[in-house]
Amino acid sequence: MPRQWYNLAADVPNDPFMGPDGPVPAEAWAPVFPMNLVEQEYSRERWVDIPEGILELLTRWRPAPLHRAYELEAALGTPARIYYKNESLSPAGSHKPNTAVAQAWYNKEFGIKRLTTETGAGQWGSALAFACSLLGMECKVFMVRISFDQKPYRKLMMQAWGGECIASPSTETQAGRAILEKFPDTPGSLGIAISEAIEAAVSDKSGQTRYSLGSVLNHVMMHQTIIGLEVKKQLEKAGEKKVDVVIGCAGGGSNFAGLAFPFVYDKINGADIDIIPVEPASCPTLTKAPYVYDHGDTAKMTPLVAMYSLGHNFIPPPIHAGGLRYHGMASLVSKAANEGLLRPLAIHQLECYKAGILFARTEGIIPAPETTHAIAATIREANKAKEEGKEKVIVFNFSGHGLMDLLGYDKYLSGELTNYDLPDEVIKKNLEDLAGYPMP
Ligand SMILES: Cc1ncc(COP(=O)(O)O)c(C=O)c1O
């Protein structure tokens, strides 16, 4: 296993957080995050040692296997060699525990007893509940209403690990009450749930509660790079000398960054690699939104972050890939895209589910709806390799299994799902809220 994480901020420094008085100093985060994680957030060190205590936790399920998708290749008749990194084998079923155990461990080191967080699809909430149970900490999760209703089993997983899970918007916070008053039937959004979780953390006067974010932040991207660093070693063992295409689905950006950033490092140093983050066509942050300064949450509790954003008030349509319904994108992923190091792609959900079904029937694993976006892009690339008659090496991140997301498959298989194109006017309207904000 790799013993260090890779920090892309050393090579592609992202723009600073911005507050009303200019760049936000590290100390300002003290009520929200423990200072050891804040230091990581601001770090420009390229390689960061993984503490022994975290390595021990990670070895419960890592290294994660890298599979060659022989059956999918055969079904497509492609000359491409397709590999996928199987992050679905973690106890919570996705890549999320890679940073959950790291964040819980750093918080515990700092003397924190209780973590609050938000969750979209429930994958992150269950990962943090799992991590907190390993470390004997308390965990409270605000789960986006639409997923809370669609995915009762994720809530039960959190409870089995000793976590508390409530639907967001809730009546427990000011942010939640304000939204409910205006939109009583809202499906919720990650932006709203983040506001609630931050408020719940900073309003605990005991000082023993902090907030934990499952994606978007620099330190989360860094914790996930263990994925790509393992993949590099595994590809070498498999005898591969060159990678042509690297693919990951992108919601907040963490599983994509985890696989891709070590390859972005190679690209910066001269390698010719096509690196593709894939998002839903109904929430097209990287492909249709501008690169701006915006808040990470709806209630504007976070400072401004330089990123591609559909606007902090954007409530995405309730597509089934709940983990990809976020108005913004990790600042580091945004910066890398802005520098031309990535080639973002948006795909509609029907193509994604079709790809997920083909994957399940060839490779055998039922992918999470989020993951199907990476598979759909992989299939497009494999078909392109076939047309061009090229033996490309394609690697994608199998970010999670879909065994808790079968309702989406039910809707797809019974023909109830439709595609949803986000009209340009809606995007334009939401971005009006950013008038007067600084530009990166
Ligand atoms: C399986 C899976 N993949 C991908 C994502 C998207 O998040 P991120 O872009 O941070 O990897 C999620 C989020 O919940 C998820 O559960």
Task: Give the gist of this structure.
With 440 residues, the chain is an alpha/beta fold.
Explain what the structure shows.
The chain is α/β, with parallel strands linked by helices and 440 residues long. A six-stranded mixed beta sheet has the order 5-6-16-11-12-15, sandwiched between helices. A hairpin with a 2-residue loop joins strand 2 and strand 3. Helix 2 runs antiparallel to helix 4 and helix 5 runs parallel beside helix 7. It starts with a strand and ends in a 9-residue tail after the last helix. The model has no long low-confidence stretch (mean pLDDT 96).
Low-confidence stretches: none
Question: What is bound: which ligands?
Answer: pyridoxal-5'-phosphate
Question: Could you give a short account of the major beta sheet?
Answer: 6 strands, mixed
Distance between the ends: 37 Å
Query: What is the subunit arrangement here?
Result: single chain
Number of beta-strand segments: 16
State the shape. globular
Major sheet: arrangement of strands: 5-6-16-11-12-15
Alpha-carbon Rg, integer:
20 Å
Helix/sheet category? alpha/beta
Helix content: 40-55%
Strand percentage: 15-25%
What is the tally of helical segments?
A: 18
Q: For the residues shown, what is the average pLDDT?
A: 96
